[in-house]
Write a structure and sequence with these properties.
Length: about 150
Amino acid sequence: MVDKNARENKILDLFLTNRPTQTTICSTRAGISDHDIVITTNQLAAQRKKPISRKILLWKKANITELRNDVSKLKDRLMEEYRQHNRPINDLWIDFVTSIKRIESTHVPSKMSSVRHHQPWVNRNIKQLGRRKRRSYQRAKMSGKQQD
């Protein structure tokens, strides 16, 4: 990290970091002894990127019968175009992909994921325990027995 000479054209001092992008200034100043002082300015708090919200498809609420009908019609249309008009395969591929995306957006409802800050203490073991607790609660609620 130190790239300036501190004593007679030699670099004597080291400044080590695992995040070099957080070091904003690294310079040398004249000191009292025969070599210079290394001065660094660093950002102590890491900058966090805001999580990106993603589109989540809700397949359990999808209209599967209409989706299958539209995909079947798409297949028939593309096969007919390939046979009759002899279109290039790349054009058919682009038409196929855009049509599938359109059919998906029409028949499969979606939602945007919520933007949450990552909670580092919630690891895989904590999530497993939470799911086990939820399953036990549901089992006890369904059975109505005290022992569950």
